[in-house]
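Dissemination and training. As part of the outreach component of the grant, students in the summer workshop were shown how a complex can be specified as a set of sequence lines and then modelled as a single object. The example used during the hands-on session is reproduced here so that future cohorts can follow it. Participants entered these lines:
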Amino acid sequence: MAVEFEVNEREVWDGNYAASQALRQADVDVVVAYPITPSTPIVENYGSYVGNGYIDGEFIMVESEHAAMSGCIGASAAGGRVSTATSSQGFALMVEVLYQASGMRLPIVLNVVNRALAAPLNVRGDHADMYLGRDSGWLQASAFNAQEAYDLALCAFRIAENHSVRLPMMVHQDGFITSHTAQNVYPLSNEAAKKFVGVIDPVDDMLDFSRPVTYGAQTEEDWHFEHKAKQHKAIMDSVGVIEDVFAEFKELTGREYKRIETYDMEDADVCVIGLGSTVESARVAAKEMRKEGVKAGVVAIRVFRPFPYEEVREALKGCKSIAVTDRSSPGGAMGAFYNEVAAAMMTSKSRPLVTNYIYGLGGRDLSIENIKTIFKEQQANADAGYITTDIQQFTNLRGPKLGFFKTERN
Amino acid sequence: MSVEQQDLKLKASENRGKSQLEAGFDLLGWDEVTQGSVLPSFDGDASNVAHQKAEEREYSDYNSYTATVASWRVQKPVFNIDVCIDCQNCWVWCPDSSILSRDKQMLGIDYDHCKGCEVCVEVCPTNPKSLLMFNEYTDLGDALASWPEKKKKEKK
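and obtained this result:
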């Protein structure tokens, strides 16, 4: 039987350690892993919890991330509670198998410690890997600090394994800034966490010998479309369960999570919308802007998939100019996050101005001053009544000013 | 043994290969298809299937056992019961479970699932072989009539 791992009411954990503690407390049956910076400690710690007898689980080391996610699929189809972690190139190698997991409706929880994609090689945080998974059919939640990485990992098992959801879920945290910065974390007691997460109730598990099933059927043009539509419907419908689990978590801990978070938005004229660790910087910048007389607010996306279109529209409809911040190289288009927000606001009555800022690639810092500049440009747009800058701009980039696409004016 | 006698023994199961995999039947809407395209192999409790013969099992419509999945075979193995020694080598090696055998008695080929890979012919140890490849449309009687004689050992 497992040895009790003692946790204090308050711990000093970094995001990786916090996520690994969530895996321990959730009694994860199987972790199949191929470690990669900066997510390595999550699976490494799980392995040590197994090795030291703190958890009855299986830690399986494989030859690649493709194999890691494949192993997770096997263990999940067998009926176990399954999780792993990855970043960047590892995530990219997993992508093919991510679609298999979601298509087979397997409730795997993947801790993604966001890191830039090569080339050029870079180990630091941006959201290129997260964006790579945005069409993969996984639910995606964003943690802005270590506490949230822990909380959301626990919630993720509840959401993913719910029988009306049955979808895999990613919990994202920013490489190094969140994953390697030790902060105060208030974990649940082992008992409370175990009670909250509960025991997985498998569906179509392959170890049920009274009802053998086939996973991985082939469906051509006469079946494939229906299966993908059903999967998309399940993602869209997961909203209710996500909200229920967040409500229950608040009841238990006092910590409240919403699909989008809003800060100083009641009377905001201008707003920065973002996700990840940037949100906390933006909140500080907004407070400073308010001292300078600008009605600045911040909106943060907690659940990136399913994308909260209605909530975004509701939160932003009173704004005059909005800066959407994309931490991923857009590769010949507006940032993907900009496109989502612009689509939501296009259908609003107020049709506020929506601008796009590319920032922080490869771990480039986004300072309070940078964000204040963004707020000031939004205020200038709001005063002018049109977008005064290029619609897409690059923030804190060396060299001549880089921007694309302008507002159409008569 | 006559062609009729050998052929009768091949009809081991009534529901084997009854449906075609091609489109056009029972097309369900997105709200009716199974979650994750996971398909149950049997109807009802299957706890005992390991102890049942294939023809006794309640295969579901989703199971390939009930479907014909050999339409693209161009050459077929033909089995000659008069030469066979029931060694089960072909049954062991067949990658598609298409050798029909009961109580270690070789019965024939499951042509609804055999893809014509020729592995059974390759591993057959008899002289002449009790399995040989013929054009898909060759009549069983013609195939058996053209069976080669036993090869004599060549003197060195």
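The interface with chain A takes residues 23, 27-31, 33, 35-42, 45-47, 49, 62-63 of chain B (CB under 8 Å). Students were then asked to discuss how this feature might be tested experimentally.
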